[in-house]
Amino acid sequence: MVSLKSEQTYEILSQRQLVWRKFKRHRLALVCFYALITLYAIVIFAEFFAPYGAFERHSDFLLAPPTSLHFVDENGTFHLRPFVYKVTNELNRQTFTRTFVEDTSEHYDLHFFVHGDPYLLLGFIQSDIHLFGVDASGTIFLVGTDSLGRDVFSRLLLGARTSLFVGLLGLSIGFVLGLFFGGISGYYGGNVDLFVQRLTEFLQSLPTLPLWMALAALVPAEWTPIQVYFGISSVLAIIGWTGLARVIRGKLISLREEDYVTAARLNGLTEVAIITRHLLPGFMSYLIVYLTLAVPQMILGETALSYLGLGIRAPAVSLGTLLQDAQNVQTVTISPWLLVPGGMVILIVVAFNFLGDGLRDAADPYKHI
Amino acid sequence: MAQDSILLRLEDLKVYLPLEEGILKAVDGVSLEVKPGQTLGLVGESGCGKSTLALSLLRLTPRFARTSGQILFQPRVGAPVDLAQLDAQSDAIRAVRGNEIALIFQEPMTSFSPLYTIGNQIIEPILLHRTKDAQAAREIALDMLARVGIPDPVETIRKYPQQLSGGMRQRAMIAMALSCQPRLLIADEPTTALDVTVQAQVLKLMRDLQAEFGMSILYITHDLGVIARMVDEVAVMYLGRIVEQANVDSLFHKAGHPYTQALLRSIPRVGKKSKRRLESIQGNVPVPINKPVGCDFYPRCPFVMPGLCDRIEPPLVPIEDDHRVSCYLHPAVVAAVQREDESQAYHAT
Amino acid sequence: MTGYIVRRLGYMVLVLALVSIVAFTIINLPPGSWIDNYATQLAASGTLPDQSELDFLQHRYGLDQPLLEQYVHWIVPLVTRGDFGFSFEWQQPVWTLISDRLLLTVIVSLASLFFVYAVSIPIALYSATHQYSAGDYFFSFLGVLGLATPSFMLALVFMIIMLRVFNVSPGGLFSPEYLNAPWSWGRVGDLLIHLPVPVIVIGVSGTAAVIRILRSQLLDEFQKQYVITARAKGVRELKLILKYPFRMAMNPIISNIGTILPAIVSGSTIVAIVLGLPMVGPLLLRAIVAQDTFVAASILLLLSVMTIIGVFIADLLLMWLDPRIRFEKSA
Question: How many Å is the Cα radius of gyration of chain A?
Answer without folding.
Answer: 26
